[in-house]
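In the design runs reported in the main text, the only information available to the sequence generator was the tokenized backbone. The following block is the verbatim input for one such run; it is reproduced so that readers can re-run the procedure and compare outputs position by position.
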């Protein structure tokens, strides 16, 4: 049942949606030169073009630009307090490690280190910890809304029984921020000095991108349907992360010099928006690939979904 609902549309809806998309493309191509029309029509008539068209249309329809900004803001206000809390509990001397993990500039580094070193585990208390964790679950709820929209599945029931899913996602995302950064460091083993960090990082990010929607949707969408989006995200981040690593330190220094800690916050928000955009865009594209009617989509969905469709058609 979950796999059938995960497609989100019936065969008739998919046919209508495809026809509408093709009509829109033809109308747009009509304004181009003849040679360009033929080239683009050939490209868009193949599997990659069809996937891109449906992916862009779904991304716009689901308003993922605004959702990406929401996720970025929620990530900033949810994950960073948890990292500070964990660092404070571990030991105040780990403040420098925390600053190193986030790549903070000197001006903001001193503020963060002073805040962590000046606070002890007792300063949070049980009430403080509960408030931090409860506030952090807003990120999980926002992500849940995104994935239910992408996969057109009912929202999982909310309650104390589902709180563990929210907390586990927040903790996994918090730890992955530091673990993935540490995994990008070259190793001393030859000839895997540069290749091994890439493989480990790819595996970690694919695992996180697979774990988050599967847990938040309470298994309503099977992991094999989520796998294309997770693999696309990990593959995309292999190029986005090095570019961000090259840009971020200089941007943080400039922001800190001009605007102080508030400039650093906005710079991190821009970085998080990019990551959120990549995360949701690949999730949408993965959904389009997994529900496509041709061979790859059928192979991803597997024989189980085919049997469910056959049983549903026989029962009508």
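Verbatim output:
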């Amino acid at each position: 049942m979950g796999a059938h609902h995960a497609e989100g549309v019936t065969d008739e809806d998919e046919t209508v949606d495809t026809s509408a998309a093709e009509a829109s493309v033809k109308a747009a191509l009509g304004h181009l030169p003849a040679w360009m029309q033929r080239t683009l029509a050939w490209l868009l008539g193949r599997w990659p073009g069809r996937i891109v068209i449906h992916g862009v249309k779904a991304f716009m329809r689901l308003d993922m630009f605004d959702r990406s900004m929401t996720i970025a803001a929620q990530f900033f206000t949810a994950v960073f307090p948890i990292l500070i809390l964990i660092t404070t509990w571990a030991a105040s001397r780990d403040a420098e490690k925390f600053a190193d993990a986030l790549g903070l500039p000197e001006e903001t580094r001193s503020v963060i280190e002073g805040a962590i070193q000046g606070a002890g585990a007792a300063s949070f208390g049980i009430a403080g910890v509960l408030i931090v964790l409860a506030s952090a679950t807003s990120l999980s709820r926002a992500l849940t809304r995104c994935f239910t929209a992408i996969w057109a599945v009912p929202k999982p029931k909310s309650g104390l029984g589902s709180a563990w899913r929210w907390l586990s996602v927040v903790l996994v995302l918090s730890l992955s921020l530091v673990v993935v950064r540490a995994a990008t460091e070259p190793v001393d083993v030859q000839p895997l000095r540069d290749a091994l960090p890439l493989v480990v990082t790819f595996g970690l990010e694919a695992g996180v991108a697979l774990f988050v929607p599967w847990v938040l949707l309470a298994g309503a969408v099977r992991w094999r349907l989520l796998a294309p989006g997770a693999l696309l995200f990990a593959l995309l981040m292999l190029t986005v992360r090095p570019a961000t690593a090259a840009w971020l330190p200089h941007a943080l220094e400039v922001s800190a010099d001009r605007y102080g800690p508030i400039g650093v916050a906005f710079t991190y928000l821009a970085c998080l928006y990019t990551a959120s955009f990549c995360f949701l865009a690949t999730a949408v594209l993965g959904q389009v690939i997994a529900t496509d009617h041709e061979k790859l989509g059928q192979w991803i969905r597997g024989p189980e979904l085919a049997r469910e469709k056959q049983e549903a058609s026989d029962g009508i």
